[in-house]
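Chapter summary example.
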Amino acid sequence: MLVLLGVYVVIRLTAGDGLVARVEERARKVFSTSSQTENKANLNSSDQTSSQTANEAPRKSDEEFSNWIQIQTKNLEVPTNDPIEFERKTKQFVNQLNSSQLSELKNKILNLELPMNERIFSNYALMQFEGDSKNEFLKDFLNSPVPQFPDPKPHSEDEVRRGQEFALRYMEIDELFRRSEDGDVQARVILSQIAQNHPDLKIQNYAKRKLSEIRK
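The structure predicted for these 216 residues follows.
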């Protein structure tokens, strides 16, 4: 999902102008197509290599993990000359993390006290995880309460923050959609549950829309 990080950066950089609707729509448009085109065309072979390497490589230490998060968060808005290689390296690294480190990534996404860049990169990194527990990570995040902001008036800071929270969750739904289209039955069940039972109507309706777009 090469476009993923680009959209995250758009969300971050446009936050100041309060154009939340445009940010959300941009995220929806990009994620509805990214997994079906660029990801499959460019990354299939490198994904296999990355997965094989991760299985053979030693686990990352907590110090390596912390340093990695710090560096990547700091460089999030710096353009990369080779986005395919960046994604390959991210996928390789995240698939060498242990369960505690993966849980920490999930907790970072949910932590409203952290800088948005750190939450953005943590979400992006977790999307690259290929282990069996990935669907459960996505489910846990989507079932977490959507933060409420006291003053979501047009062009206000609260409106921007609210839009960011929805955009992050749309990205998780799009990942469930991608996995469902690839034949992942568990991902499809989770997506269906979100579409039927999520307490937030915006999340519920977006999940319904993605569920209706599955071609298998």
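To summarize the output: The CA atoms of residues 7 and 27 lie 6 Å apart.
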